[in-house]
Design brief:
alpha+beta; about 110 residues; about 20% strand; 5 strands; 4 helices; about 45% helix; 5-stranded mixed β-sheet
Length: about 110
Amino acid sequence: FKDAIQHIDKSTVRNWIEELVVVKTFSGLKFQEAILKRLALHFGKSYRLATPAEESKGIDGFLNEQPVSIKPITYKTKMGLNEQINIPIVFYDKKKSEIVIEFNDEMLN
């Protein structure tokens, strides 16, 4: 680990930040909107993305008036962490050619 730290330079940090902010955040937002759109179609509801104030409460979007949180499937392994989400959670898994979503039908209906 000490050896690895010695190899961190400005370029490494820049690449990491670009990956986190540009690629993952941008992709995540696109996934969220696509998932909300698909669920709205499935349930015959309208949808919208959350405002920044709503996002700070763990809300990623709404199906009609129902707030939902959208998380990658890997989030399930972290569910024992301090964060507590008291709204329906939709999980997604980005596959090679599709996004697979998992949700509790009753919670969103």
